[in-house]
Write a structure and sequence with these properties.
Layout lengths: L2 E11 L2 H11 L11 E6 L3 E8 L4 E9 L2 H13 L4 E5 L3 E5 L6 E6 L27 H4 L8 E9 L2 H11 L3 E6 L3 E5 L7 E5 L4 E8 L3 H14 L4 E7 L6 E6 L5 E6 L30 H4 L4 H8 L1
Parallel strand pairs: 1-3, 4-7, 8-11, 12-15
Antiparallel strand pairs: 1-4, 2-3, 5-6, 6-7, 8-12, 9-10, 10-11, 13-14, 14-15
Bound molecules: fe (ii) ion (FE2).
Amino acid sequence: MALHRLTSITLGVPDVTASSAFFEDFGLTGNAGASTSSTRLATRDGGEQVELVHAPTRRLDRIGIGADDANDLTRIAAVANRSSIAEIVESSSDRLVLREPVTGLLVDVTVADDYAAALSVHTFNRPGGEPERIDTPANSVLTHDPVRPSNLTHVVYSTPDQPTTLAFFTDVLGFEISDQIPGIIAFARCGNVHHNVAIQAGPVAYPHHIAFEVDDIDDVVRGGQRMVDADPDRHMWGVGRHAIGSNWYWYLREPGGTFVEYTADIDRISEQDLYRPKDWTGHEFLYSFGPPPPPEFLEPADLAELIAAAS
Ligand SMILES: [Fe+2]
Protein backbone atom coordinates (compact mmCIF):
# COMPACT_ATOMS: atom_id res chain seq x y z
CA MET A 1 0.00 0.00 0.00
CA ALA A 2 1.40 3.36 -0.97
CA LEU A 3 0.28 5.23 2.12
CA HIS A 4 1.39 3.75 5.38
CA ARG A 5 0.57 5.75 8.52
CA LEU A 6 -0.90 8.83 10.10
CA THR A 7 1.73 11.53 10.42
CA SER A 8 -0.23 14.22 12.25
CA ILE A 9 -3.55 15.89 12.94
CA THR A 10 -4.70 19.46 13.42
CA LEU A 11 -7.38 19.70 16.07
CA GLY A 12 -9.35 22.88 16.67
CA VAL A 13 -10.06 23.47 20.37
CA PRO A 14 -11.68 26.38 22.25
CA ASP A 15 -8.88 26.63 24.81
CA VAL A 16 -5.45 25.77 23.41
CA THR A 17 -3.72 26.19 26.78
CA ALA A 18 -6.09 23.83 28.61
CA SER A 19 -6.03 21.17 25.87
CA SER A 20 -2.26 21.41 25.56
CA ALA A 21 -1.88 20.84 29.31
CA PHE A 22 -4.13 17.77 29.01
CA PHE A 23 -2.04 16.26 26.22
CA GLU A 24 1.16 16.90 28.17
CA ASP A 25 -0.32 15.08 31.16
CA PHE A 26 -1.35 12.34 28.71
CA GLY A 27 2.32 11.86 27.90
CA LEU A 28 2.95 13.96 24.81
CA THR A 29 5.81 16.45 24.80
CA GLY A 30 4.81 20.05 24.29
CA ASN A 31 5.18 23.55 25.50
CA ALA A 32 1.95 24.19 27.41
CA GLY A 33 1.13 27.84 27.89
CA ALA A 34 3.59 29.09 25.28
CA SER A 35 0.82 30.23 22.95
CA THR A 36 -2.92 30.69 23.27
CA SER A 37 -3.51 30.41 19.51
CA SER A 38 -1.68 27.24 18.48
CA THR A 39 0.83 24.68 19.68
CA ARG A 40 2.36 21.36 18.69
CA LEU A 41 2.93 18.22 20.74
CA ALA A 42 5.11 15.22 20.04
CA THR A 43 4.70 11.50 20.61
CA ARG A 44 7.61 9.33 21.72
CA ASP A 45 8.27 7.75 18.32
CA GLY A 46 6.30 9.81 15.78
CA GLY A 47 7.56 13.35 16.38
CA GLU A 48 5.23 16.36 16.36
CA GLN A 49 1.97 14.60 15.57
CA VAL A 50 -0.60 16.88 17.23
CA GLU A 51 -1.22 20.49 16.30
CA LEU A 52 -3.77 22.36 18.38
CA VAL A 53 -5.29 25.53 16.96
CA HIS A 54 -7.87 27.84 18.46
CA ALA A 55 -11.44 27.29 17.24
CA PRO A 56 -14.78 28.44 18.64
CA THR A 57 -15.96 24.82 18.91
CA ARG A 58 -13.92 21.67 18.60
CA ARG A 59 -13.28 20.38 15.11
CA LEU A 60 -10.89 18.30 13.04
CA ASP A 61 -9.14 20.53 10.51
CA ARG A 62 -6.52 18.25 8.99
CA ILE A 63 -5.19 14.71 8.93
CA GLY A 64 -1.59 14.12 7.80
CA ILE A 65 -0.76 10.85 6.08
CA GLY A 66 2.65 9.45 5.15
CA ALA A 67 3.33 8.17 1.62
CA ASP A 68 6.18 5.92 0.51
CA ASP A 69 7.42 8.15 -2.32
CA ALA A 70 6.59 11.00 -4.70
CA ASN A 71 5.01 8.62 -7.23
CA ASP A 72 2.26 7.95 -4.70
CA LEU A 73 1.43 11.65 -4.61
CA THR A 74 1.30 11.84 -8.41
CA ARG A 75 -0.98 8.82 -8.62
CA ILE A 76 -3.38 10.09 -5.93
CA ALA A 77 -3.42 13.56 -7.52
CA ALA A 78 -4.45 11.99 -10.84
CA VAL A 79 -7.33 10.17 -9.14
CA ALA A 80 -8.34 13.34 -7.27
CA ASN A 81 -8.32 15.31 -10.53
CA ARG A 82 -10.98 13.03 -11.97
CA SER A 83 -12.98 12.82 -8.76
CA SER A 84 -16.00 14.85 -7.71
CA ILE A 85 -15.41 14.05 -4.03
CA ALA A 86 -11.92 15.55 -3.66
CA GLU A 87 -10.46 18.99 -4.29
CA ILE A 88 -6.73 19.54 -4.75
CA VAL A 89 -5.63 22.39 -2.48
CA GLU A 90 -1.87 22.04 -2.95
CA SER A 91 0.25 19.79 -5.12
CA SER A 92 4.04 19.62 -5.26
CA SER A 93 6.72 16.95 -5.54
CA ASP A 94 6.63 16.19 -1.83
CA ARG A 95 3.17 17.31 -0.70
CA LEU A 96 -0.41 16.80 -1.80
CA VAL A 97 -3.21 18.46 0.13
CA LEU A 98 -6.77 17.41 -0.64
CA ARG A 99 -10.05 18.72 0.71
CA GLU A 100 -13.00 16.45 1.33
CA PRO A 101 -15.86 18.70 0.16
CA VAL A 102 -18.63 17.41 2.45
CA THR A 103 -16.87 18.29 5.70
CA GLY A 104 -14.02 20.53 4.51
CA LEU A 105 -11.49 18.17 6.12
CA LEU A 106 -7.98 18.57 4.73
CA VAL A 107 -5.84 15.50 4.13
CA ASP A 108 -2.18 16.39 3.90
CA VAL A 109 -0.16 13.64 2.20
CA THR A 110 3.63 13.92 2.45
CA VAL A 111 6.48 11.55 1.73
CA ALA A 112 7.41 10.23 5.17
CA ASP A 113 9.42 7.36 6.61
CA ASP A 114 7.88 4.91 8.99
CA TYR A 115 8.78 5.78 12.56
CA ALA A 116 11.19 3.61 14.53
CA ALA A 117 9.37 2.49 17.65
CA ALA A 118 11.39 2.14 20.83
CA LEU A 119 11.35 -1.49 21.93
CA SER A 120 9.13 -2.13 24.94
CA VAL A 121 10.95 -3.06 28.11
CA HIS A 122 7.91 -4.96 29.43
CA THR A 123 8.00 -8.74 29.66
CA PHE A 124 5.12 -11.18 30.25
CA ASN A 125 5.07 -14.60 31.84
CA ARG A 126 2.47 -17.14 30.75
CA PRO A 127 1.56 -20.63 32.00
CA GLY A 128 4.06 -23.20 30.76
CA GLY A 129 7.10 -22.68 28.61
CA GLU A 130 10.06 -20.51 29.43
CA PRO A 131 9.38 -17.36 31.46
CA GLU A 132 10.13 -14.06 29.77
CA ARG A 133 10.98 -12.53 33.14
CA ILE A 134 12.59 -14.29 36.06
CA ASP A 135 14.01 -13.19 39.41
CA THR A 136 12.68 -9.64 39.05
CA PRO A 137 9.32 -7.89 39.40
CA ALA A 138 7.53 -6.60 36.31
CA ASN A 139 9.01 -3.41 34.92
CA SER A 140 5.62 -1.70 35.04
CA VAL A 141 5.42 -2.04 38.84
CA LEU A 142 8.96 -0.77 39.31
CA THR A 143 8.60 2.40 37.26
CA HIS A 144 6.81 5.58 38.18
CA ASP A 145 7.72 7.35 34.96
CA PRO A 146 4.77 8.79 33.01
CA VAL A 147 3.55 6.73 30.05
CA ARG A 148 4.88 8.05 26.74
CA PRO A 149 2.53 7.19 23.85
CA SER A 150 4.45 5.82 20.87
CA ASN A 151 2.41 7.29 18.05
CA LEU A 152 -0.86 8.73 16.80
CA THR A 153 -2.54 5.61 15.50
CA HIS A 154 -6.15 6.42 14.56
CA VAL A 155 -8.82 9.08 14.27
CA VAL A 156 -12.56 8.49 14.40
CA TYR A 157 -14.43 11.14 12.49
CA SER A 158 -18.16 11.79 12.33
CA THR A 159 -19.62 13.12 9.11
CA PRO A 160 -23.14 13.93 7.91
CA ASP A 161 -22.46 12.05 4.66
CA GLN A 162 -20.71 8.87 5.77
CA PRO A 163 -20.69 7.12 2.35
CA THR A 164 -19.06 10.10 0.61
CA THR A 165 -16.46 10.83 3.30
CA LEU A 166 -15.62 7.13 3.40
CA ALA A 167 -15.32 7.01 -0.40
CA PHE A 168 -12.88 9.93 -0.22
CA PHE A 169 -10.59 7.77 1.90
CA THR A 170 -11.09 4.53 -0.04
CA ASP A 171 -11.61 5.55 -3.67
CA VAL A 172 -9.35 8.62 -3.77
CA LEU A 173 -6.65 7.89 -1.18
CA GLY A 174 -6.69 4.10 -1.49
CA PHE A 175 -7.56 3.12 2.08
CA GLU A 176 -8.91 -0.40 2.53
CA ILE A 177 -11.86 -1.25 4.75
CA SER A 178 -10.96 -3.70 7.50
CA ASP A 179 -14.39 -3.94 9.16
CA GLN A 180 -17.61 -2.03 8.88
CA ILE A 181 -21.23 -1.76 9.84
CA PRO A 182 -22.44 -0.38 6.51
CA GLY A 183 -23.82 3.14 6.69
CA ILE A 184 -22.92 3.49 10.38
CA ILE A 185 -19.14 3.15 10.76
CA ALA A 186 -16.25 1.87 8.66
CA PHE A 187 -12.76 1.12 9.96
CA ALA A 188 -10.18 1.73 7.25
CA ARG A 189 -6.41 1.43 7.04
CA CYS A 190 -3.56 2.61 4.86
CA GLY A 191 -0.92 0.26 6.30
CA ASN A 192 -1.05 -2.95 8.29
CA VAL A 193 -2.64 -1.47 11.43
CA HIS A 194 -6.32 -2.49 11.55
CA HIS A 195 -7.57 1.09 11.31
CA ASN A 196 -6.01 4.51 10.90
CA VAL A 197 -9.38 6.18 10.40
CA ALA A 198 -12.93 5.23 11.23
CA ILE A 199 -15.64 7.16 9.46
CA GLN A 200 -18.97 7.21 11.28
CA ALA A 201 -22.35 8.68 10.47
CA GLY A 202 -23.27 11.70 12.57
CA PRO A 203 -25.45 14.80 12.40
CA VAL A 204 -22.44 17.08 11.77
CA ALA A 205 -18.71 16.75 11.18
CA TYR A 206 -16.68 16.46 14.37
CA PRO A 207 -13.76 14.45 15.75
CA HIS A 208 -15.19 11.63 17.89
CA HIS A 209 -11.81 10.51 19.20
CA ILE A 210 -8.12 10.26 18.50
CA ALA A 211 -6.03 7.32 19.66
CA PHE A 212 -2.42 6.94 20.66
CA GLU A 213 -0.67 3.60 20.68
CA VAL A 214 1.20 2.61 23.84
CA ASP A 215 3.40 -0.43 24.35
CA ASP A 216 0.93 -2.77 26.01
CA ILE A 217 -2.01 -3.19 28.40
CA ASP A 218 0.21 -2.18 31.32
CA ASP A 219 0.64 1.26 29.79
CA VAL A 220 -3.07 1.56 28.93
CA VAL A 221 -3.98 0.98 32.58
CA ARG A 222 -1.09 2.91 34.07
CA GLY A 223 -1.66 5.90 31.76
CA GLY A 224 -5.43 5.97 32.17
CA GLN A 225 -5.32 5.65 35.94
CA ARG A 226 -2.77 8.42 36.26
CA MET A 227 -4.95 10.74 34.17
CA VAL A 228 -8.13 10.14 36.20
CA ASP A 229 -6.26 10.26 39.51
CA ALA A 230 -5.27 13.81 38.57
CA ASP A 231 -8.82 14.70 37.44
CA PRO A 232 -11.67 12.15 37.69
CA ASP A 233 -13.79 14.16 35.22
CA ARG A 234 -11.40 13.11 32.47
CA HIS A 235 -12.65 9.52 32.55
CA MET A 236 -14.82 8.50 29.61
CA TRP A 237 -14.73 4.73 29.08
CA GLY A 238 -12.47 1.85 29.94
CA VAL A 239 -10.52 -0.09 30.56
CA GLY A 240 -11.64 -2.73 28.10
CA ARG A 241 -10.91 -4.55 24.88
CA HIS A 242 -12.62 -3.71 21.62
CA ALA A 243 -14.21 -6.41 19.48
CA ILE A 244 -13.39 -4.80 16.11
CA GLY A 245 -9.61 -4.42 15.97
CA SER A 246 -9.13 -6.29 19.29
CA ASN A 247 -7.37 -3.28 20.81
CA TRP A 248 -7.24 -2.49 24.50
CA TYR A 249 -8.60 0.97 25.29
CA TRP A 250 -9.08 3.58 27.95
CA TYR A 251 -10.85 6.71 26.72
CA LEU A 252 -10.46 10.10 28.35
CA ARG A 253 -12.03 13.46 27.59
CA GLU A 254 -9.79 16.37 26.71
CA PRO A 255 -10.98 19.85 27.77
CA GLY A 256 -12.26 20.67 24.26
CA GLY A 257 -14.59 17.64 24.39
CA THR A 258 -12.81 15.25 22.02
CA PHE A 259 -12.19 11.79 23.43
CA VAL A 260 -8.56 10.67 23.57
CA GLU A 261 -7.65 6.99 23.74
CA TYR A 262 -4.72 5.04 25.08
CA THR A 263 -4.68 1.89 22.99
CA ALA A 264 -2.53 -1.24 22.63
CA ASP A 265 -2.34 -4.57 20.81
CA ILE A 266 -4.51 -3.64 17.84
CA ASP A 267 -4.85 -6.22 15.04
CA ARG A 268 -2.45 -6.11 12.11
CA ILE A 269 -3.53 -7.11 8.61
CA SER A 270 -1.07 -8.33 6.01
CA GLU A 271 -3.29 -8.58 2.95
CA GLN A 272 -6.94 -7.80 2.41
CA ASP A 273 -7.61 -11.29 1.05
CA LEU A 274 -6.19 -12.96 4.16
CA TYR A 275 -8.26 -11.02 6.68
CA ARG A 276 -11.58 -12.57 7.61
CA PRO A 277 -13.74 -10.03 9.41
CA LYS A 278 -16.68 -11.17 11.48
CA ASP A 279 -20.13 -10.14 10.31
CA TRP A 280 -20.70 -7.41 12.89
CA THR A 281 -24.21 -6.35 13.88
CA GLY A 282 -25.61 -4.05 16.53
CA HIS A 283 -23.50 -2.69 19.33
CA GLU A 284 -21.56 -5.90 19.98
CA PHE A 285 -18.82 -4.46 17.80
CA LEU A 286 -18.09 -1.76 20.37
CA TYR A 287 -16.33 -3.96 22.89
CA SER A 288 -15.53 -7.52 23.73
CA PHE A 289 -15.19 -7.08 27.48
CA GLY A 290 -14.89 -4.34 30.06
CA PRO A 291 -17.49 -1.94 31.49
CA PRO A 292 -20.33 -0.95 29.13
CA PRO A 293 -19.88 2.31 27.23
CA PRO A 294 -21.47 5.37 28.85
CA PRO A 295 -24.21 6.98 26.71
CA GLU A 296 -21.96 10.00 26.24
CA PHE A 297 -19.46 7.89 24.32
CA LEU A 298 -22.11 7.31 21.66
CA GLU A 299 -23.61 10.79 21.86
CA PRO A 300 -21.12 13.38 23.10
CA ALA A 301 -22.50 15.87 25.62
CA ASP A 302 -21.65 18.82 23.37
CA LEU A 303 -23.39 17.43 20.28
CA ALA A 304 -26.21 20.03 20.37
CA GLU A 305 -23.59 22.75 20.59
CA LEU A 306 -21.69 21.27 17.62
CA ILE A 307 -24.91 21.07 15.59
CA ALA A 308 -25.76 24.69 16.42
CA ALA A 309 -22.25 25.81 15.47
CA ALA A 310 -22.50 24.06 12.10
CA SER A 311 -25.80 25.64 11.11
FE1 LIG B 1 -10.44 4.07 19.00
